[in-house]
Every structure is written in structure tokens, then in C-alpha cells.
Design brief:
Blueprint lengths: L3 E2 L1 H7 L5 E5 L11 H7 L6 E2 L19 H11 L6 E5 L7 H10 L5 E4 L2 H7 L24 E2 L1 H6 L5 E3 L3 H5 L18 E2 L15 H11 L8 E3 L6 H10 L6 E3 L2 H5 L13
Parallel strand pairs: 1-5, 2-3, 2-4, 4-5, 6-10, 7-8, 7-9, 9-10
Helix pairs in contact: 4-9
Length: about 280
């Protein structure tokens, strides 16, 4: 199974015993949308809902940061998602957070994880079947382990020499637009570069071509084939940058999970406004 699968591929393999479909849709609070409610109303047949707000470190002041390996494994087993399954993640969100689901599952040890190119948006546009409600229970085993692919605020402050790529939109990065979270400063970290995650996608929700993705990284001044740090507002959309680099053959990118929600809320961290 490729890391990026088409709706046609999924339609042909749907229902196979080791294939699990996961809806990881999430929406910014200001939209008034509920990923769980929309999932219950309509989802790809057999899909299970991964709530990134619930499967998280609930004690953290930063939203939906990664939980412990033990908590993640228990949550996946409860959902019926096995570590050795073939897993296809999709979303129906403008924040394209299938990439967050993909990152979480791989980070905790799943090896065969793909993103549905175009997500539910494309699936529905093609008139493919959906269902509602909760899926039937499924036995699964998920012995979670953690990959070394996270960086902390303390490590960033100490300096590690890696390029830092921020996935937020340009107005938020440059500080011409206020952060939507109260108490979080505008701007970006000194030396960081900007590659808005939305630029990686076509209008129909599919990823752009590899050549186009390479060009976007080049324009941002970061080599996508080499290690870099990805961040965003709260650790969600940065995963689109990490997945895009993965498509180009790079699995050495690292995530700053606290992202700007943590950095921007700390009065002691350096911040600048303006272009990169």
C-alpha cells in the first residue's frame, strides 16, 4: 500500500479484513463544526473516528498534544485499530488533518499508514457510498512505541541547527493578523521560514504533484530531503509538511508539537514580525 492512496484504490479494497479506515476530521472552534457529529452523520463505510482532542495529553495546557504511548495504544485498541493493520486516514476539514492522524499512528508504531488523497470531499464528489452511526466493534492489538521525531521548546531555545518551517498562513506568520487563541502573541520565531500548509493541496483536496511540492519547499528556502523542524498553530497542520516531505522520500523531519500555541504564549521566547 502506498502512503497516498486514491479513492478508487480504497473503493476496490474496502472491506478487506486487515484494512481499517480512520476519519480524523477536526475543525477550528470558530467554525462551529464538530468532527465527531459530522462523522456520526456521514462517513466512509466502516470508518472509525479518531478524535485528536480526546486522544491527547489532556493535562497539557497546549491543545491536542500527543498522549503517552500507553494511552494511545489503549485508545486505538478501543477503536478497533491494530498496529499491524493497513490503515487509511482521511478527513473532511479545511485544516487537512488526515496528516495529523497519519503522523500519530506512525509515531506510535504503525508501519502501514496511508492518507486518502482528496479525503471525504473527493469521495462524496464521486458519489461513493457512506454510512452513519458507530461502526461495529472490532478486536485489535496496538502495542505502541514512540519514534524519535519530536522536538521541545527547550530544545529549540538551546538550538539544534535544523531549519524551522512554520505551516501557518502568511498573515499569522508575519504578525499582520492576530493569533486566534487568547494570550498568544503574533509573529514567528526568529530564523523560521514559512510554508503555508494549504499551498500543498489542490482545490479538490488532493496533494499537488511532487514537482510542485519540491518547488514550494525551494521557495520557502528549506530542503525537503533533509531534516527540518515543522510547526504550526497547535501541532496539526505542520503534519502536512512532514507528510509532503515523506512523499519526497524524507522521514527525518521532526514535529514541534507545542507549536505556536506554546511558543507564542510564553513571554520569554523570542518573537519577530514581518517576512521570513
Amino acid at each position: 500500500m502506498d502512503s497516498l492512496v486514491s479513492t478508487q484504490w480504497l473503493a476496490e479494497h474496502l472491506g478487506e479484513s486487515d484494512l481499517v479506515v480512520v476519519d480524523s476530521s477536526w475543525h477550528m472552534p470558530a467554525t462551529g463544526r464538530s468532527g465527531r457529529s459530522e462523522y456520526l452523520a456521514q462517513h466512509i463505510p466502516g470508518a472509525r473516528y479518531l478524535d485528536i482532542d480526546e486522544v491527547a495529553d489532556r493535562s497539557s495546557p497546549v491543545p491536542h498534544t500527543l498522549p503517552s504511548a500507553a494511552d494511545f495504544g489503549a485508545a486505538m485498541q478501543a477503536l478497533g485499530i491494530g498496529r499491524d493493520d493497513r490503515i487509511v486516514v482521511y478527513d473532511d476539514s479545511t485544516t487537512r488533518n488526515a496528516a495529523r492522524g497519519w503522523f500519530m499512528l506512525r509515531h506510535f508504531g504503525a508501519a502501514r499508514v496511508a492518507i486518502l488523497d482528496g479525503g471525504l470531499q473527493k469521495w462524496l464528489a464521486e458519489g461513493r457510498p457512506t454510512e452513519s452511526g458507530e461502526p461495529p466493534a472490532r478486536k485489535a492489538r496496538f502495542e505502541a512505541v514512540e519514534r524519535d521525531e519530536l522536538v521541545t521548546k527547550q530544545q529549540l531555545l538551546a538550538g539544534n541547527g535544523l531549519p524551522w518551517l512554520d505551516a501557518r498562513g502568511r498573515p499569522r506568520f508575519e504578525g499582520t493578523e492576530d493569533d486566534p487563541r487568547p494570550g498568544v502573541a503574533a509573529g514567528h520565531a526568529p530564523g523560521s521560514r514559512n510554508l503555508p500548509f494549504a499551498s500543498l493541496y489542490r482545490e479538490d483536496g488532493r496533494f499537488k504533484s511532487l514537482d510542485e511540492i519540491q518547488q514550494l519547499f525551494d521557495e520557502a528556502g528549506v530542503d525537503p530531503t533533509q531534516p527540518f523542524i515543522a510547526s504550526c498553530g497547535s501541532g496539526v497542520t505542520a503534519n502536512s509538511l512532514i507528510f509532503a516531505a515523506h512523499l519526497l522520500g524524507n522521514d527525518r523531519a521532526k514535529l514541534y508539537d507545542g507549536s505556536w500555541s506554546e511558543w507564542g504564549a510564553d513571554p520569554a521566547t523570542p518573537k519577530v514580525k514581518g517576512p521570513a
